[in-house]
What does this fold into?
Amino acid sequence: MEEQIDRLADMIARSKRVVVFTGAGVSTESGIPDFRSPGGIWEQYDPSEFTYQRFLSSAENRKMHWQFYRSGTLVSKDTKPNPAHYAIAEMYRIGKLDCLITQNVDNLHQQAGLPEEKVIELHGNMRWVKCLKCGKRTPTDEVVKRIEAENVEEPRCEKCSGILKPEGVFFGESLPERALREATHYSHNCDLFIVIGSTLIVTPAAYMPSYAIQSGAKLVIINLSSTPLDHEATMIIEAKAGEVMPKVLERLKDKLNRK
Ligand code: ZN
It folds into this structure.
């Protein structure tokens, strides 16, 4: 693995535009359960109950959502970024990250210090809640606190009493158009695309590395299991992101300093 780490650091050092793409595997090391894996959330909850359509159409369904958020399974203020998040943020600080595309909804990349405008969130962000009527945004934590303090089952907008919906993308909801457009653009225009902790199954997010390859970029995959794009990758590192990325960063810094 040491040799692969060194090779990846070399590739990053030589590349002009590096895009990093992260999935659930990066967040699991911060204690956030992977939804789709065995023992994941969707074995305890029925995903068909959590669709966008059901959320809009029924107050009962919204109550269930808020109970779920209160449980802290998904959004907990105790969740902290891990070494992989910090290493990616540091890549940006040393000028070696064009942008980050993520399937994660937990805000941990921003918490690790990556500027918000460098994070493209294909599946939204569960740390924020938006009023569907007036558009007012509130941190999810605050809404959950209000639920507990006022003992309400379904919180409404304080300004206009519209329905409050977390900004994470629900089942049956389309992906945020701007994020999708930006992600597609950056994927087409990079020369190195690094996938970290994604099995590349959920589309259209998983199309991004294909766009990069089509445009001539090199693909590197760091993941614990295989992906449908493994045969297209220049390199595959089967290891934990939190163990690999800090080492890659260290080597990268050495190489840049030696130049
Ligand atoms: Zn409102």
Notes: Residues 241-258 form the longest helix (18 residues). The chain has a mean pLDDT of 92. The radius of gyration is 19 Å. Residues 131, 133-134, 136, 157, 159-160, 162 surround zinc ion (CB under 6 Å).
